[in-house]
Predict the structure of LysR family transcriptional regulator.
Amino acid sequence: MRAFCRIVETGNFKNASEDLNVATTTLSGQIQSLENQLGVKLLHRTTRRVSPTADGLQYYQRILPLLDEIEEINQEVQQGDNVSGLLKIELPSPVADHLIVPNLPSFLAKYPNLRIEIGSSERVVDLVEEGVDCAIRGGVIADDRLVAKVIGQMPFCLCATPNYLQQHAPIQNAEDLEQHCYLAFKFAATGKLARVYVAAEIREQVKDGILFHQTPSQTYNNAQTYYHALLAGLGIGYVPKAFAEPYLATGELVQVLKDYPLQAMPMSFIYPHSRYTPKRVKLFQQWVEDLIERNPLWQRE
C-alpha cells in the first residue's frame, strides 16, 4: 500500500522505486498483486506517466491517513517516553502570550526532543486543511471534524487609563458608558464586532445583557493594536484579565465598573477527529490542563 501511494505521488514507477529503494520490477509486481487482491484497476499506465484511476484515487485518499497513523504509532512505540517530532499548535494571542508561552520551558524540559510551532493569528485556522495538530479556541466549537474539550475560561474586564478617566465624566453605572469613547474589537474572520456581555447573574439589570449600545468611537481587528490604543488613553476597552492584570497592578490601567462582572469565554482544547491521536497531542493537552489547574484566573467557575 505504501508503494502504491508513492507511485501516485511521484507519477511513475522509476521515481517511486528510487524513493523506496526497491527494483522497478518488484514494485510493478506488488501493484499487480494489490490490483488482483482488490479486483479493481488502480493505475492508468502510459510510457511517460502513471496516474490513478477513479477507484485508485479513492483508495489512495482512504489509505494514506491510515498509513501515516501506522507510521506514527510505530515511531512512538520505538521512542517510548522519548517523544520527538513537530507539534503544531494554534492559540488565541492572549492564551499564547499570558498562559502557554511563559510556561512552555517546563513542557520542553520534559520533552526536549519535541519541536514546537505556535501560530496565534486573528483568523480561525482550519486544523484539518492546514495540518495543525491541536489548538485552544474560545467560544462554541461547532465543527464535527474536531474533538473538543472545555478546559477553562478567559475572563474579561473593562479598563481605561487614569488620564482618560480624569478627562471624562465619572462612570457609575452601565448607562454612563454611552457618554464615553468605546474601543471596539472586530473579528477579522467574520467582520463582526465583539459584544460585551455581562455575567448571567446581573443580566436582567442591563439592557439586553450587553454593555455599549452606541456606535464605537474606534474599531480595531488586531489584538496588539487594540491594546496599544487602550494604553494610549483613546477610550474604554474590553480586554482579557490576563492582559490587564500587570497594568492594573502598576496603575497604568484602571478597571471600570467592577460591580458589573462580564461573561467569561469558555476555552476548549481541540484536535482533528481521528481513530488515533498522536502521543505528543495527548501529552500537550494534559500539560495544558495541569497548567490551568495551577492558574485560577483561567479556571472554569
Observations:
- Residues 54-79 form the longest helix (26 residues).
- The first strand starts at residue 43 and ends at 45.
